[in-house]
Specification:
By secondary structure, the protein is an alpha/beta fold. The chain has one domain. A 6-stranded parallel beta sheet has the order 1-2-3-4-5-6. α2 crosses α3 and α3 runs parallel beside α4. InterPro entries: FBL60-like (IPR055294).
């Protein structure tokens, strides 16, 4: 039997590997991706030197034709930082939405946006202020694109930190 998947809701831990995933018909993906460090979920951000034992590489590659992507947690955006070398070019991605409740997830945004050449709309739903580094990353990534950016929250931008 052959299935055509056009919508996906993925709320789970990322396994140590995926088989090759072919989601060419995928139109919309809602992602809440949690990873493990040493096969344990720490309920905190993974650090640069941590032994991340989850690997979403084949999932990212399989959904490269998605048109609408909703990252439903700061952990999901962080996956694009830790696996930045595996991010495919999302040629068809037109709408990206990011929901976060943390100030710490913005480093993945640069790598993701650099691989979305046709992105038209970026919506950021944040429940905490976006730190200065996050705003700089957003400006740097969008300066060469015509992009509508929606910032949805009270007090989304915090003042620059003093040096």
């Amino acid at each position: 039997m052959f299935f055509i998947v056009t919508h996906s809701d993925y709320y789970d831990f990322v396994p140590s590997s995926y088989l090759v995933v072919n989601l060419n018909s995928l139109v919309e993906a809602n992602l809440d991706l949690l990873v493990t460090v040493n096969h344990t979920w720490l309920a905190s951000f993974a650090l640069e030197n941590d032994n991340i034992t989850s690997n979403p590489t084949n999932l990212f590659k399989g959904m490269r034709n998605v048109q609408i992507m909703n990252l439903l947690s700061h952990e999901s955006l962080e996956r694009f930082y830790f696996f930045r070398g595996a991010i495919p070019v999302f040629e068809n991605l037109l709408h990206l939405s990011i929901t976060t409740m943390s100030e710490c997830c913005w480093r993945g945004l640069v790598f993701l946006l650099n691989n979305c050449p046709n992105l038209e709309t970026l919506t950021i739903k944040s429940f905490v202020p976006m730190p200065y580094q996050g705003r700089v990353a957003l400006i740097r990534c969008t300066s060469e694109q015509t992009l509508i950016v929606h910032l949805v929250a009270q007090g989304l931008c915090s003042p620059p930190e003093s040096v």
